[in-house]
Amino acid sequence: MTATLKINEIFYSIQGEALYAGMPCVFVRLTGCNLRCVYCDTCYAYDEGAGMSIDEIMEKISAYPCRLVEITGGEPLCQEAAPRLIGRLLDAGYTVLLETNGSMDLGSVDPRCIKIMDIKCPGSGASQKNNLNNLKYLSSCDQVKCVITCAGDYEFAKNILRSTILSDQSIAVLFSPASNMMAPATLAEWILADGLNVRLQLQLHKILWPNDCKGR
Ligand code: SF4
């Protein structure tokens, strides 16, 4: 008998973020999150969901014509069996992305999994939960993401990254303007003025499907 996870939704769409943006991808959204960021756009995943065994999840994923899978949430690592699901997918030959809020220990995640780890800025209301010890688990395939709501967040992200990984050219750093809070063009100007070694990230799925909040 395989482990069971509480799943909010499984869907097939275009990857909207990070270095795989634009690629077809199967998304597995796990229920539950230990944070409550002020700009959260997936509040529906805090509690809603149904139990599925790893075998059932694998079967559902295999119905899509796609070998790229993202495990997301909520915060996937709130569920103990999430690393086992990731391992099963990797062993089956999928490329697996993990979106994680950066507060949960990444030590149990298979190193073959591509991690997209948040560093929460003060505007999120959750920056005190950052676990920077996780930076030691990141390799050149992984990415760090900062959602920026204001100038204070930008300065926070710049300083924390400068003191940790910004000089490490191998780890991609993404700066994403918070929807309806930060003008993308203003963030672009700040990045250019500072010559920061980061990527400005716009959420492609919100440009493609501005009226859909679930299943995209
Ligand atoms: S970590 Fe992600 S899912 Fe959790 S509250 Fe923050 S934005 Fe929402």
H/E element string?
EEEHEHEEEHEHEH
Q: Give the full name of the CATH homologous superfamily.
A: Aldolase class I
Instruction: State the major sheet.
Output: 9 strands, mixed
Please identify, by name, the CATH architecture. Alpha-Beta Barrel
Bound molecules: iron/sulfur cluster
Which CATH C-level class is it?
A: Alpha Beta
Would you write up a description of this structure?
The model has no long low-confidence stretch (mean pLDDT 94). The protein has 5 helices and 9 strands, in the order E-E-E-H-E-H-E-E-E-H-E-H-E-H. Strand 4 (68-72), helix 2 and strand 5 (95-100) form a beta-alpha-beta unit. With 216 residues, the chain is α/β, with parallel strands linked by helices. It has one domain (4-208): Alpha-Beta Barrel (TIM Barrel). A 9-stranded mixed β-sheet has the order 3-1-2-4-5-6-7-8-9. The chain has helices at 54-62, 82-91, 151-162, 184-194, 204-208; strands spanning 4-14, 24-30, 50-53, 68-72, 95-100, 114-118, 143-148, 172-177, 199-200. Iron/sulfur cluster binds at residues 33, 35-37, 40, 42, 73-75, 101.
Give the tags.
216 residues; alpha/beta; TIM Barrel; nine-stranded mixed sheet; 9 strands; globular; binds iron/sulfur cluster
SSE blueprint and pairings:
Elements: E1 4-14, E2 24-30, E3 50-53, H1 54-62, E4 68-72, H2 82-91, E5 95-100, E6 114-118, E7 143-148, H3 151-162, E8 172-177, H4 184-194, E9 199-200, H5 204-208
Parallel strand pairs: 2-4, 4-5, 5-6, 6-7, 7-8, 8-9
Antiparallel strand pairs: 1-2, 1-3
The protein binds iron/sulfur cluster (SF4).
